[in-house]
């Protein structure tokens, strides 16, 4: 699009998570008028650590915010998968992107804070819970629970796995339960029983449970994540420490000790969901990004990275395509094949039925065929 057209473009982004904040930065660099509407009254990200891949870090370099992100990360050279008792299964360096070879490990809260910190003051509007969206073709109107309405040339739906934008305009299919729970905490490196001595991600797998140790040594901490098979699909299930300890039975005693020492008040407990692929991500004036478009299971560690890539691809398309309509089609054509693959791969090999094919001998004992 012409520079003059971009400068006259009024963009409303719904959601100030990874995808929304990244899209705000990328699109504002085009010269467009960008406003972000977030339902929370304050920006706060709970949970644990994630890894920002080399391609993602290169997007930040392109947007001039690499240093702002990198200074609150630990650069990692490789990731490793091991058995429950620590025997190596696989060790690989991170896929490089040009000269960028490190994946940067970061706390979710630090990441959101850094992203929002590089946006112009006044761009993010808190306390705006979206109630409805009306797509009028060349423009759309947002109505919020606080009574405010906003009209925009382009609405970017970055409102997560329970996206109102997706449900109202593109797909009314709800989230899909994976049959797993995730138990996440951030603990001191000193409480990791000597298991964290470098900046590399390790996953221990046994009997249907995955234990992730993601170092955040720039904070003196480590992100400790247990993902375990469980049939309870409640969004916020009631789980005791004994329940969690049962999922790591037979693991390296140091991992069991970390679990035993957890302060349950600090553990984020949730059932794990994704969504089925959405056929269409855009109209002529509305587009989906991030989890709203393609929420995926966390097994490949690509949720946040995909949201950042979406933001970059959307900005590229708006800059290079001759019209807004063509830009949105180009964006979907670029990103949807990639995220469809990631969604599928993230689902593969982790169910009770599949896990023994991927990691022989690791099927839960109570799920093994009876003789």
TrEMBL record:
**Record's SUPFAM superfamilies?**
FAD/NAD(P)-binding domain (SSF51905)
Q: Which InterPro entries match?
A: FAD-bd, FAD-dep_Monooxygenase_BioMet, FAD/NAD-bd_sf
Cofactor(s) listed in the protein's UniProt record = FAD
Keyword Flavoprotein annotated: yes
Residue span of region Disordered: 331-371
Spell out the Pfam families in the cross-references. Answer: FAD_binding_3
- The FAD-binding domain covers 10-338
Query: Which superkingdom heads the taxonomic lineage of this protein's source?
Result: Bacteria
Question: Keyword annotations for this protein?
Answer: FAD, Flavoprotein, Monooxygenase, Oxidoreductase
Tell me the PANTHER family matching this sequence.
GERANYLGERANYL DIPHOSPHATE REDUCTASE, MONOOXYGENASE
Name of the featured protein: FAD-dependent oxidoreductase
- What species is given as this protein's source? Streptomyces chlorus
């Amino acid at each position: 699009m012409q520079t003059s057209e971009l400068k006259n473009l009024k963009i409303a982004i719904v959601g100030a998570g990874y995808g929304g904040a990244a899209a705000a930065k990328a699109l504002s660099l085009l010269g467009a008028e960008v406003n972000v509407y977030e339902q929370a009254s304050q920006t706060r990200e709970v949970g644990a650590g994630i890894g920002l891949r080399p391609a993602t870090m290169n997007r930040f370099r392109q947007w001039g915010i690499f240093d702002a992100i990198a200074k609150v990360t630990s650069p990692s050279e490789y990731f490793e998968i091991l058995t429950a008792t620590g025997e190596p299964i696989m060790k690989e360096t991170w896929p490089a992107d040009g000269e960028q070879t490190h994946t940067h490990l970061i706390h979710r809260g630090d990441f959101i804070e850094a992203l929002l910190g590089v946006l112009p003051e006044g761009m993010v509007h808190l306390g705006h819970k979206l109630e409805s969206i009306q797509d009028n073709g060349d423009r759309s109107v947002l109505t919020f629970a606080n009574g405010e309405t906003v009209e925009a040339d382009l609405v970017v739906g970055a409102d997560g796995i329970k996206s109102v934008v997706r449900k109202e305009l593109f797909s009314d299919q709800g989230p899909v339960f994976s049959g797993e729970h995730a138990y996440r905490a951030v603990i001191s490196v000193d409480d990791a029983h000597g298991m964290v001595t470098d900046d590399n991600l390790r996953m221990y797998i046994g009997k249907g449970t995955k234990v992730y140790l993601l170092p955040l040594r720039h904070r003196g901490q480590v992100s400790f994540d247990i993902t375990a098979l469980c049939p309870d699909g409640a969004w916020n299930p009631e789980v005791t420490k004994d329940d969690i300890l049962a999922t790591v039975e037979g693991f390296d005693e140091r991992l069991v000790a970390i679990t035993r020492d957890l302060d349950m008040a600090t553990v984020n407990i949730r059932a794990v969901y994704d969504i089925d692929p959405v056929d269409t991500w855009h109209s002529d004036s509305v587009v989906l990004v991030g989890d709203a478009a393609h929420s995926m299971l966390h097994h490949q560690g690509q949720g946040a990275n995909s949201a950042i890539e979406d933001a970059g691809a959307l900005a590229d398309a708006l800059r290079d395509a001759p019209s807004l309509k063509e830009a949105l089609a180009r964006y979907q054509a670029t990103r949807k094949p990639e995220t469809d693959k990631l969604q599928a791969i993230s689902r593969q090999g982790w169910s009770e039925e599949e896990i023994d094919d991927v990691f022989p001998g690791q099927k839960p004992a109570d799920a093994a065929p009876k003789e």
